[in-house]
Design a protein that fits this description.
9 helices, mainly alpha, Arc Repressor Mutant, subunit A, elongated, 2 domains, 217 residues, Four Helix Bundle (Hemerythrin (Met), subunit A)
Length: 217
């Protein structure tokens, strides 16, 4: 059995491995993920592979297509608008509720994530960009006390994570994103809720526009 699978349930471990492969560009939009080949590669039966693909379908990473099976989901304009409409509504709500409760420990975590992001850029570790971006946003919302809204946003960030590397591959977009992250932290430190929320909305909309420019017709 593949050593990657030893310390997790088989479906979870296979889903993790496939998710990383999609995020890392090993499997691109339109690629077919055949259960028999995956089962052979992981040294398991097809049952845990099927369960892993069902999980990835729920997360938006693959689409089950008749007569083809699991296919890596493409970057569609409809999906982008759906995801970012929801993010634009829910993330400002989380920030408004979280900001008054943020303390020194929270800002230290945000600073640490920014440092990790910078390190990932220096080493050109693009595979980390999406994860760190999502962790940064979730750290801003840590004190919101809105578990259902937060769970929805976690799913939205996970869905859009695999596009972040593509969006940030342009140096100008990358510099803008980092500047906006730093400004968001500064506004939160100052307790400037209106400015922080307005910037967050612009930040989310800017990413939407970048992705729409890269999307399929």
């Amino acid at each position: 059995m593949n050593t990657l699978l030893r310390h997790k349930t088989l479906p979870a471990a296979i889903a993790d491995a496939l998710r990383k492969a999609i995020l890392g560009g090993e499997h691109t939009a339109g690629d077919q993920l055949r259960q028999d080949r995956l089962a052979e590669a992981f040294g398991v039966s097809r049952i845990p592979v099927r369960e892993a693909l069902i999980q990835l379908e729920a997360e938006g990473f693959v689409t089950m297509v008749p007569h083809k099976g699991a296919v890596v989901t493409g970057l569609s304009r409809a999906e982008i608008d759906d995801v970012f409409d929801l993010r634009a509504m829910l993330e400002p709500r989380l920030l408004i509720h979280s900001l008054p409760g943020l303390v020194a420990e929270d800002f230290a975590r945000l600073d640490g994530l920014e440092g990790q992001f910078s390190a990932a850029l220096v080493t050109d570790n693009a595979g980390e960009w999406g994860r760190l971006n999502a962790e940064f946003h979730l750290a801003l919302y840590a004190k919101a006390g809105l578990p259902r809204t937060l769970a929805t946003v976690v799913g939205l960030l996970q869905t859009s994570e695999r596009y972040t590397r593509l969006q940030l591959s342009d140096p100008a977009r990358l510099e803008r994103a980092m500047d906006e992250h730093r400004a968001l932290v500064q506004f939160c430190r100052q307790g400037a809720a209106d400015e922080a929320v307005a910037l967050l909305r612009r930040h989310v909309e800017a990413v939407r526009c970048d992705l729409l420019a890269l999307a399929m017709p």
